[in-house]
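Recall the central idea of this unit: under ordinary conditions, the amino acid sequence of a chain determines the structure it adopts. In this exercise we apply that idea directly, starting from the sequence alone.
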Amino acid sequence: MYIPQPDDTQLSWANGRDNAFVHRPLLPDWHELLAAFCGHIGDQPDDHPVTRWARGLAELHLERREQPRDAGGIDELRAQTVTFIDDWVAKRARRSVLRGESLGAVVDVMAAAHVHAVYLLKTAEKVSDHEVHAAWYRLAKMADGWTDQAVRVLGSQERRNSPAYPRLQRPA
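Accordingly, the structure predicted from this sequence is:
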């Protein structure tokens, strides 16, 4: 499994067809993180670095579930990946990231929760099982928390101007 290294990233990315540079939000939204955990995105060089790391974390959690004897080495790779995310965000955030604000740790916990929820969904006798529902609800709460924490780190400007964080319209 390939886990991208910190020097693999750039602030702007070429779009692949005409090599024009496009602006992307600094951080992926929760939809992109969940897609990465599922393995739908995060495997291409032009994918967002955080989604590539998120996919790697989900793969590590799955490997840890399937091969518990290798937990020490897997946990070391997870810790390195969390550090890569935190360092990448700290270099690009508009304000200094406060101690204890680890977006990498949030992604790691979300990846673990996703792997657990999928496992329960596949192994439960009934999809309506309370434990399955609770696992997916927990993941949904984490996704909501990701948005809040990303806004705190980036500041409100990124959320207002980014298509990844659409403005909510008040009902008329």
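The longest strand covers residues 13-14.
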